[in-house]
Amino acid sequence: MEQKAKLEGEGIMPQDLEQLKQLIEELRKIEESMRRNIESAMTLDKRISETLTRIGISSEGPRNLQKEKTYVPRPPAKPVEGSLEKVSVGVEKVNELLTGGVRPGMNALLSGPPFSGKYVLAWNFIAASLDEGVPVVVITTDRDIGEIKYELSRIFRNVDEAEETGLLRFIDLYSRTVQQKPTSKYAAVIDSTSNISSLIKVTEQIGNDIRANYPYYRVVFTSLNVFVAELDDKILVKFLQQFTQKRKMENAVTFFLMEEGQNEKRPSDAISYIFDGMIEFKTDASRNLLRVHGLGNVRSRDWIELYLNETSFDLGSFTLEKIR
């Protein structure tokens, strides 16, 4: 009663207090509604970004409500001179089979029929390299860059940022061949797959640019089938010898992909001596299998069953004894 009398004495009536409480409650409800709307908008924004990334379109634009932390890759530590430290191929069981991975400077051929697992290994190799902060150059002759970026985004989420910062580079020999507009504004575009002199020059320029800031880099060449079909054998061999030796000198690990069954001749038989080894894939009835040729010490050189999933694969059992 005393408090009520005091408020009335100050000119504040009880009905004013009640109205003030109602206004405060309405304000609280509005603030809560705004918070929920902002959260919903941010969730929707994230889903839009993921969808755009999946179809190969940049998600940059004014609709971003909250800018994510800028992805800044750090240069890897420079390896000790003459070090035989292994490089991860991105799939744990394959690393185990290869007794830790492959050595720096190696050129490896991934060969096998379609859908046998070689591209899955290639995407994981790229993703693992980017995750380690190691630059990767992807040379594509057989597929659109947007498709490649989508496959990579299923394993490594910062694909666009890696490309924007120069950690991921593309050399595009595909778009002009099929007369379509390149889907990457950062890619080096070459007008024809037969223009190998331009390919050598562009690869050299990109390699020099990368090595100004990084001690080494990695390359994925997808795929060699176009060159096998179009180039004379002597020209093909000369090109591959020059290309692989240069990458070896630059300490770059390079994966070359080859689709078996698309050409009448078996190019892997004719050019296999150029590479340091091969990971061969095949399908047998309902099974997928893998085996290793060369590439230093391995746990087994037998055919090993592999079990594909959406973004990677597992291997069946193999001997634990090292084989040269």
Strand content: 15-25%
CATH class of the largest domain: Alpha Beta
User: What CATH architecture of the largest domain do you see?
Assistant: 3-Layer(aba) Sandwich
What order do the SSEs take from the amino end to the carboxyl end, as H and E?
A: HHHEHEHHEEHEHHEHEEEE
Total count of strands: 10
What's the gyration radius in Å?
Answer: 28 Å
Shape: elongated
The proportion of residues forming helix, as a percent range, comes to 25-40%
Neighbour order of strands in the largest sheet: 4-3-2-5-6-1-7-8-9-10
- CA-CA gap between termini: 96 Å
Q: Please work out how many helical segments DSSP would assign.
A: 10
Provide mean pLDDT, rounded.
83
CATH topology of the largest domain: Rossmann fold
CATH superfamily of the largest domain: P-loop containing nucleotide triphosphate hydrolases
What's the multimeric state?
single chain
* Number of separate structural domains: 2
Secondary structure category: alpha/beta
Q: The biggest beta sheet, please? A: 10 strands, mixed
Low-confidence stretches are 58-71, 77-84
